[in-house]
């Protein structure tokens, strides 16, 4: 296929390998649910117009050393050779025979998307967005951190990077590694001070070169579509930052029917997010590499599909929207405070 055909503003690249349907680093009790959403998503998206499927290359051990300590990678390599299932952390992130190859495929998917961004403005990696892993440890179903690898590579290429991370859980691994770096980090997640991973204090605004570039938009537990819509007003900070690349994590574990229920969103919120990112990309000219994030329920695949529809500029309304005026008011107050500080230079 000629490169000229790959530059359509409406064309979406989906990084896909059939192995994705068999990969899950989640707790054994929800691994089958996690795998099922990937398989169902592929069935839903396979006949979409303006979509091209791209086979990923594998990353190398050396690639992962850019964002992880050797000790952690050797631990994963050793676990990969064991004949049984176990845990890489305190009891969430599973390891199994051959996990190292799957980790390298996940990381390679991100590197493939960066390479293909020469031709495609918007890409989606359904199995990706492992934002909890830190430099030295696996955690939260994330053996390694593919988002951090993307950020590091793009920064090394001289790009201006923004991260918009929507998930039931705060992206602690991304915040930790790039807290003092010139990367815009906008997190929208469920928070009550102790909900996993326990990070995400809205007062943490960055330091050094990253001062003022860290935004934690903490949603009350069980917040609905109306509160999420308020939170998306924070996309103004992306407009002001003017990135050349936006990494979008659209974790669908915020859906109201998720097995790890924490938010009360419908698939409409994910479509709304996709539409907003699509419109901003068209207007400002930045590239988008997006990820499927977490998702452990019957609404996961639909939410992924709705997000992807949004990334191609298509509005859908699949479910009855959820509302909670009290929670919406709390989010509005937080967003107002952020935006007022932005206008005053704080």
From TrEMBL:
Occurrences of domain Histone deacetylase (ranges): 35-299
A Pfam family this chain is assigned to: Hist_deacetyl
GO biological process: epigenetic regulation of gene expression
Coiled-coil region(s): none
Domain of life assignment: Archaea
GO molecular function: histone deacetylase activity
The protein, known as: Acetoin utilization protein
């Amino acid at each position: 296929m000629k490169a000229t055909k790959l530059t359509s503003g409406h064309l979406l690249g989906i990084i896909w390998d059939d192995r994705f349907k068999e990969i899950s680093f989640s707790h054994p009790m929800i691994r089958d649910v996690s795998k099922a959403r990937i398989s169902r998503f592929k069935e839903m998206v396979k006949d979409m117009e303006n979509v091209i499927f791209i086979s990923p290359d594998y990353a190398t051990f050396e690639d992962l050393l850019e964002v992880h300590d050797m000790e952690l990678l050797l631990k994963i390599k050793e676990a990969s050779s064991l004949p049984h299932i176990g845990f890489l952390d305190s009891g969430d992130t599973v390891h199994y025979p051959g996990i190292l190859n799957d980790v390298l495929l996940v990381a390679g998917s991100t590197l493939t998307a960066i390479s293909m961004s020469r031709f495609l403005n918007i890409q989606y990696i359904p199995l990706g967005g492992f934002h909890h892993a830190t430099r030295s440890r696996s955690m939260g179903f994330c053996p390694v951190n593919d988002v951090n690898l993307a950020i590091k590579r793009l920064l090394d290429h001289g790009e201006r990077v923004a991260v918009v991370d929507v998930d039931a859980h705060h992206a602690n691994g991304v915040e930790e590694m790039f807290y003092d770096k010139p990367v815009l980090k906008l997190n929208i997640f469920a928070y009550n001070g102790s909900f996993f991973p326990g990070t995400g204090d809205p007062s943490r605004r960055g330091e050094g070169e990253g001062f003022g570039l860290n935004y934690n938009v903490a949603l009350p537990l069980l917040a609905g579509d109306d509160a999420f819509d308020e939170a998306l007003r924070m996309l103004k900070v992306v407009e002001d930052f003017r990135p050349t690349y936006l990494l979008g994590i659209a974790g669908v574990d915020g859906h109201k029917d998720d097995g790890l229920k924490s938010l009360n969103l419908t698939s409409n919120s994910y479509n709304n997010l996709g539409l907003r990112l699509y419109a901003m990309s068209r207007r400002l000219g930045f590239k988008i590499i997006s990820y499927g994030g977490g998702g452990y329920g019957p609404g996961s695949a639909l939410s992924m599909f709705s997000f992807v529809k949004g990334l191609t500029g298509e509005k859908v309304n699949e479910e009855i929207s959820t509302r909670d005026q009290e929670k919406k008011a709390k989010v509005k107050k937080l967003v107002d405070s952020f935006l007022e500080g932005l206008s005053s230079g704080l």
